[in-house]
Structures are given as C-alpha cells and as structure tokens.
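Long-time lurker, first post. I've been practising inverse folding by hand and with some scripts of my own, and I keep getting stuck on stretches where the structure tokens seem ambiguous. Below is the full token string for one chain I'm working on. Before anyone asks, I'm not after the true native sequence, just a reasonable design that respects the backbone. If someone could post their per-position residues I'd love to compare against what I wrote down in my notebook.
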C-alpha cells in the first residue's frame, strides 16, 4: 500500500467522523447554555420573591426578577413574571415564577421553555 492511498483513507475516515464530532461539541455547548439559563432564572426568581417577601412590593419584585435574569435575556416581558399574590401578609408564602423560551444557537432543536420558581415566607 502506498503512502498516498493511506492519506486518502484518513481523509475518508475524517469525513465520516466530522459530523459526529461536531454534533457532540455543539450539543455540549447547547446543554451548557440551557443549564446556565435555568440556574439564572431560578436565582432571578429567588431575588424577586425576596423583594416581595420583605418589602411587599409586587412591581419591585417583578423588576428585581427581570433585572437578575438580564444575562439570559434583556427583553423578558413583565407578563413572563408572575406572583402568587399581590399582598404578602406575614406568615403566608409567596411564589414568583419567571418564564422564558430559550432559542438555540444551532437552530436544530428548540426553543426550550424554561421556568424559574422562587418561594419564600412573607415577613422575612
């Protein structure tokens, strides 16, 4: 077997494996983005519900949640942030939920609906 035919075989093997390797790399990137977005949304919901539980301010709670989720998207609408109650009476629980549809970089799958939820006892 000559050296030229071996180079051709290596090129064919590379051409066969390249799509698989690209799918693995891009899948890892997409999974990392989705995981990061989920953690960010959960932390944003906690920040917002903390404002509601302590300050009893529904508008401030929604603003705090949207600001904390700005690294995921700066265009999260106010309607994507919901509170379980508008008045936080001492001793009751309040829940803040923030929703977002995460689009993918590759466009192969998605968008993925994601939700962050925070629950706290009112009155701090």
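-- Answer (accepted) --
I ran through it position by position. Result:
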């Amino acid at each position: 077997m000559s050296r030229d035919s071996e180079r051709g075989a290596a090129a064919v093997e590379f051409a066969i494996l390249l799509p698989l390797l690209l799918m693995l790399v891009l899948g890892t990137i997409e999974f990392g983005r989705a995981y990061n977005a989920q953690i960010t949304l959960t932390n944003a919901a906690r920040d917002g519900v903390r404002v509601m539980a302590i300050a009893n301010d529904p508008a401030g709670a929604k603003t705090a949640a949207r600001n904390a989720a700005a690294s995921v998207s700066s265009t999260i609408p106010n309607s994507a942030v919901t509170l379980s109650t508008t008045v936080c009476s001492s001793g009751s629980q309040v829940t803040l939920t923030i929703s977002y549809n995460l689009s993918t970089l590759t466009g192969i799958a998605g968008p993925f609906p994601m939700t962050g939820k925070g629950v706290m006892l009112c009155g701090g």
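A couple of notes from the structure itself: The CA atoms of residues 2 and 8 lie 10 Å apart. Helices lie at 3-55, 58-68. Happy to go over any region you disagree with.
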